[in-house]
Amino acid sequence: MLNCMSKKEKSFMGKEVGAVKDMAIDLSSRLTSLLNPSVWQSQERLLAELGSIFTGFAGGRIKNMLKELYERKDIDEKILDSEKGKQSFIDLIRFVTQENPDVDTWESAKRIFVRTLEKDTKEQERASLYNLLSICKELSGPEIKIISGSYKIYQKVENNEYKEGEQHHNIGRWASEVAQLIGFETNEEVLRYEDNLIKQKLISPVEQLRGDAQVTFSAGGCRTHRLTPLGLKLSKSFIS
Fold this sequence. Notes:
By secondary structure, the protein is mainly α. 60% of the residues lie in helices and 4% in strands.
């Protein structure tokens, strides 16, 4: 796939030298050699080049991502080489080098990015994925886990695994179930991230009755799992 791109004298990152230089100086000054299309003629050459450019923890993450992309057969080269594709790639490198995200955040962001490049991704879906990628990069690792746990509850609902009367919209029960699913020991480990997830419109807010906060969340169509339509969309983008 990338071999084909090199024949067209195109590189994975195009000619976005200016954007690359916005990154940390010690990285950007060495990224330039990746702009040579001949680098992509073989996986061995690629990995050798990466070894001299991407060093340290963030470098390992970038190398692994590029190796995965190199080996994929379902990547749309036109999307990969488009202005949006190249800019998203550069933004992702900037994110991992400057923000040093939690592993859950990084893995989720990487999966969403790869989905934007898949051949069977529709244009409208691709545009939505770019937005979801931006949201994902704003979340911490524990917040990603909580969204994932809520999605597991959603799957249980969809598979009719709850007995009659077990579905609810009680905040304490929701936090307890999420904690159990993602390996947290206490409800508080979930609830301490509640405000930001509500702010991001990813989970339903606390119900209000005559101005007083309740121990329930606004159920609507998300009884038990608590994910909003946006939260459900985000979780599906990096889980399924």
